[in-house]
Structure formats: C-alpha cells, structure tokens
Amino acid sequence: MHMPVVRFDVMWPDSSVMKCQSPSSIIRNFLHEGQKISLSEFLKVSELGLNLASDRVREKYGFACSAASDQLEIIQAKASRFQNWPAATVQVIRMD
After folding, report:
1. pLDDT, tens digit, for every residue of 49-80?
2. What is the value of pTM for the model shown?
3. Read out DSSP for 1-28?
4. Residue spans of beta strands (DSSP E) within 36-96
5. Which end of the chain is more exposed for a tag (fewer CB within 10 A), N or C?
6. CA 78 to CA 63: how far, in whole Å?
C-alpha cells in the first residue's frame, strides 16, 4: 500500500511555473487549484502541509519522507528570490 502522491504546479510572481509534489493528500487541506495567495501565506501553508505529509509517512512506514522536506527546501529557495517584491503572490495552477 502506498501514500496518495499529490502533484501540483505553482506560478511564481515572475510567471515561472514549478512542478511540486506532496507524498500525502493532506496538502489538499492547504492548497487548491486556482488558489492565488500571498507569497508569505504560500510559504506558511507549504511548510505546514508538507511537514504534515512527512509525518503521515512516518506514522505509516516508520520514517519521515525526505521527498517532502526536499520539496519544501526547493519551494523556500525559489521564494527567497521574491522576498522584496511588493505584493508578491503565488497561484496554484494545477493539482492532480
């Protein structure tokens, strides 16, 4: 039995698109297709959702999910480029 991986694409303030994934569907509690949110809120909910996803993997398999923490690091690195952009927003353009 495996965890339900959720893939989602986000559009950054510069209109670039990043493909992301969560090892658990719990991310759907925080993000949804079409959602447009501030950069700071996107960082908060991404961290919360991906950490909870990793915790779910730990509960089920006995170890944390490194893919979730890796994804969070990638999101945080990309987001740092836009920290000084006024009113920077991120849009979730697709979720599978």
Report:
1. 999 999 998 998 898 889 999 999 999 999 99
2. 0.92
3. -----EEEEEE-TTS-EEEEEESSGGGG
4. 36-38, 89-95
5. N
6. 27
